[in-house]
Design a protein that fits this description.
The chain contains 19 helices and 20 strands. By secondary structure, it is of the alpha+beta class. The protein has three domains: 3-27 and 184-398, Rhopdopsin 7-helix transmembrane proteins; 40-165, Immunoglobulin-like (Sandwich); 482-725, Phosphatase 2c, domain 1 (4-Layer Sandwich), CATH 3.60.40. The strands form four sheets. The chain has a six-stranded antiparallel β-sheet with strand order 2-1-3-8-5-6, with no helix packed on it. The chain is flat, with a radius of gyration of 45 Å.
């Protein structure tokens, strides 16, 4: 047989196998069952209305052969009496959903003593004999082996007729024909699953390393094939979900979906693009959509309508349509694309699986059991052939990449040589031009023009820099609390905020927290004076603002002293001050305000901690001051390096309408005539004088005093005064 004629033979073999496989799949040979009535007597009741109170009038004798050949309604009752005491196990068709064995105290059905369970939809934990979903078994108790009747109820709950598949076996017969073969199948299936998963994980690893879609498609196909075989052989129901058999068909549905989807996706990625015409590429895209839609239809029919009969019919129709499409594609490849090596791998692997399925169906039709290993071997061989094809594909791609790289290097080398020659020529021309320029007096004019241009660029740069700072002011203003936030918590308030430059090193801050255990609300208020002013101070203020929010929000710290302690640590970490001996930082006045009913004459509990800044408050029309700690936030000092340090926290009890003032040092340090500062004494006198005025008026008074004192002097520092009325 020549290579050119092989596609015709391949096509003939493939079509023959598919045709015969379909015939044997739907053809079952009648087995010559013998009536084993010498070991037991058998009666049947098909009355749909029977109940545990039913008398014996509905039962009629039936032979074992007749029982196993006929189909019944979805529920029948069998009456059995053993005449052979060696008989110990009753085995039924594996497709029966539920089996109940009733062993009465008397010969009347209405007096029950023991009920044993088995069946395809009965959890393993509820079964009398733990074997497998492939073997539905009831073990007869010893005291019912001696001429006593017992009853077995067979139920099919998924809209299917019922076939008994009934037999009574001795212990030796049960072990030989049921138990040991099943144990062998489990071992084979475990080895088979192990091989599949090794190949699957290997391909996932290759996919992670190469990001080639063909490997993830191959892994999906293997996964679906593995799940389908695990469910089809009972391995899934026995060991994965032994106590949820009702959902085992989900594994079959998703396994088949994964196998078909993975195979279609793998086909698109495995075969070269030139193998596909436009029609076949659209066919496989439609194939993927069809499988996805049918998967949800199967689930709806199986678990929504609970109708296995319709599910089976739909499954056969859908699989027939898909197989017709795949056969047509195989025929197309065998005739039109046989010369392609990847096509040969693909068709050979498909032929191996089809042949194994064909042999499997023949042996099953001949009544030979436990031959599922043939399909498993065929599946493994198919996967191994696909793996060889992937290896060939990888080598081909490596050779192609090496060829492309070599061509690219050759082209690049030519371009480099050409460009080198051009650069050399340009260099010579530039040298000639430079000699001419050096001989011309116009060089001075050119230099002057250059200086003018530079001046214009400097002006433009300065304008851009100023505009950037003004935009930074907008950003800084955006982080400052709006007046509405103060109005939500206080009777009245004012803020006097005057940056020395466009942006400020001062800022004020408010944050609301709620204790998750007590539900009490705490409002944190702070005024912060960062080292420096202008752009450097603004940068420090942005860092401080972000760190304050993070400390309270993420670390859940609300104690002012602890906040300052943590802020000091975070500033040193953020600015790497221990490594760079950086002294930048900030002075802070921080208080936590909580409304409380624990005092008879007070409504508010104020906890205060300061870093070189005090708090002033008016209580009973008297001004009080609490100084902060002598430590600032940030910076590296000898004290912080050698000694333990901490910020002091003090508690103040205030009433409604009392006032609180927090300030930076900009107001008291502002100089006027003769370079005299306003001073802290003047500030305190203003608090005493103005505290009874509305807060809007107080702000105007402070501004007037500041403007009058400053006069034409330049503002020395950023100025912030924050006033609050409880």
């Amino acid at each position: 047989m020549s290579i050119s004629t092989f596609p015709k033979y391949f096509l003939s073999v493939l079509c023959s196998f598919f045709l015969l496989n379909s015939l044997f799949f739907n053809f079952s040979l009648a087995q010559n069952s013998q009536d084993l009535s010498n070991g037991f007597s058998l009666e049947i009741c098909q009355d749909k209305s029977y109940s545990p109170n039913l008398d014996n009038s509905c039962f009629k004798p039936i032979s074992l052969y007749t029982l196993n050949q006929e189909e019944y309604q979805r529920r029948i009752l069998l009456k059995i009496k053993l005449t052979n005491t060696d008989k110990e196990f009753i085995v039924f068709d594996k497709k029966i959903d539920s089996i109940k064995a009733y062993f009465p105290n008397t010969f009347e059905f209405k007096s029950l003593n023991t009920v044993f369970l088995s069946g395809n939809l009965v959890a393993q934990s509820e079964k009398q004999v733990f074997t497998s979903v492939e073997i539905n078994t009831i073990q007869i108790p010893d005291y019912y082996k001696y001429d006593q009747h017992f009853y077995i109820e067979l139920i099919s709950s998924r809209q299917l007729p019922l076939t008994a598949g009934f037999d009574v076996l001795t212990k030796q017969e049960f072990e030989k024909t049921q138990f040991y073969p099943r144990q062998k199948d489990i071992i084979i299936q475990a080895v088979f699953q192990g091989m599949l998963w090794i190949i699957l994980l290997y391909n996932l690893f290759i996919f992670a390393a190469t990001i080639e879609k063909v490997y993830i498609a191959y892994a999906i196909y293997i996964f679906g094939f593995s799940v389908f075989n695990a469910q089809n052989t009972g391995f899934f129901s026995d060991f994965i979900i032994p106590n949820h058999p009702y959902f085992s068909n989900l594994a079959r549905i998703f396994g088949l979906a994964g196998a078909f989807l993975g195979h279609a996706y793998f086909t698109l990625e495995f075969l070269p693009k030139e193998v596909f015409g436009r029609f076949w590429r659209q066919f496989f895209k439609g194939f993927i959509i069809f499988v996805s839609v049918m998967t949800f239809v199967y689930i709806g029919v199986m678990y929504g309508a609970n109708n296995l009969k319709i599910y089976t019919l739909l499954s056969k129709i859908a699989h027939a349509l898909m197989m017709i499409g795949l056969i047509s594609f195989f025929i197309y490849l065998a005739i039109k694309r046989w010369s392609d090596t990847m096509t040969k791998y693909y068709l050979l692997a498909s032929l191996v699986l089809v042949v194994s399925a064909f042999v499997f169906n023949i042996l099953q039709a001949l009544g030979i059991k436990n031959v599922s290993i043939i399909v498993q071997v065929g599946g493994i061989l198919e996967i191994l052939i696909f793996s060889l094809g992937l290896g060939h594909r990888m080598k081909k791609l490596e050779k192609e990449n090496a060829r492309i790289l070599e061509e690219q290097n050759r082209t690049l080398e030519q371009k480099v040589n050409q460009r080198t020659m051009e650069i050399s020529k340009q260099k010579e021309e530039i040298l000639v031009q430079n000699e001419e320029l050096h001989q011309q007096q116009e060089e001075i004019i050119s230099q002057r023009d250059y200086i003018d241009t530079q001046n214009k660029q400097l002006k433009t740069t300065n304008t851009q820099f100023t505009d950037s700072i003004r935009y930074a002011k907008t950003i800084q203003k955006a982080i400052l609390p709006m007046k509405q936030r103060f109005q939500n918590h206080f009777e009245d308030s004012f803020v006097l905020f005057r940056p020395r430059d466009i942006v400020s090193g001062d800022f004020y801050w408010i944050y609301e927290t709620i204790d998750t255990q007590t539900g009490e609300e705490t409002t944190l208020i702070a005024v912060l004076d960062c080292t420096g002013h202008g752009v450097p101070g603004a940068f420090i203020s942005l860092i401080g603002f972000a760190l304050l929010n993070e400390i309270v929000a993420k670390e859940n710290i609300t104690s002012p002293a602890q906040i300052l302690q943590r802020l000091d640590e975070r500033i040193q970490e953020s600015l790497r001050q221990k490594q760079k001996q950086n002294s930048d930082g900030m002075d802070v006045a921080l208080c936590a305000i909580k409304k409380t009913n624990s005092y008879k004459l007070a409504d508010f509990e104020i906890k205060f901690a300061g870093a070189k800044r005090p708090i002033h408050f008016i209580k009973n029309n008297e001004l009080h001051e609490i100084r902060g700690s002598k430590l600032s936030i940030g910076g590296v000092t000898k004290k912080k390096i050698t000694d333990k340090y901490s910020f002091e926290e003090q508690t103040i009890i205030l009433s409604k309408n009392d006032k609180i003032y927090l300030t930076s040092d900009g107001f008291i340090d502002q100089n006027g005539k003769n370079n005299r500062k306003i001073g802290s004494s003047k500030l305190k006198a203003c608090f005493k004088e103005f505290h009874n005025l509305p807060f809007a008026e107080q702000r105007k008074k402070f501004e007037q005093i500041l403007d009058t004192h400053q006069g034409k002097q330049k503002q020395r520092d950023d100025i912030t005064i924050l006033g609050l009325k409880l």
